[in-house]
Amino acid sequence: MAKSLVLAGVIALAAALPAAADLVTVQSQKPVAETMDALQAAVEGAGATVFARVDHAAGAQTAGMELPGSQLLIFGNPKLGTPAMQADMRAGLYLPLKVLAYEDADGQVWLTYQDPAEMLSGLDIPADAEFIAKMQGALGKLTSKAAE
Fold first, then answer.
1. I need a labelling partner for 126 at 20 to 30 A (CA). Which of 32, 43, 60, 117 fits?
2. Per residue in 39-93, pLDDT tens?
3. Half-sphere exposure of 126 (CA within 13 A, CB side)
4. What is the DSSP string of 94-107?
């Protein structure tokens, strides 16, 4: 009986946590701030709107705590986001798109974002919706460009 409860707990916890496969990670050759500057320039150059840039490390400092370099860029393009929300308004919980640039314990900088197909998979949106492929393509191109 105890084993069944432990197993049920492990299964429930695993189901509640996002799988690592849901995240796409790109290695950057630059420090966090430069990587994020490059990402922001690429996003703006592509005609998308940057809504916010959050510096998590700076926020930690204001609380008297420390984090390695970590910044989040929140951005979107109504041409991609609106069709997702037309298909299911709850897509607005996941939009605009977000990309995190962070430094790991070894000093390596990474760009990470959630795959839009996985992000929107629990909604009433067809897996083959054209806007999902466009979001995936845009995120891939933008992060690759920023990481160079």
1. 43
2. 999 999 999 999 999 999 999 999 999 999 999 999 999 999 999 999 999 999 9
3. 6
4. T-SEEEEEEE-TTS
Q: Under a CB-based contact definition with an 8 Å cutoff, are residues 77 and 44 in contact?
A: no
Which residue is it, tokens 């910044």? 71
- Find out whether 53 and 36 touch, Cβ atoms under 8 Å: yes
Q: What's the rounded Cα separation, in Å, for the pair 62 and 79? A: 37
Beta bridge partners of 54: 72
Chain segment 80-113, per-residue pLDDT in tens: 999 999 999 999 999 999 999 999 999 999 999 9
Domains in the chain with CATH codes: 20-147 (3.30.310.70)
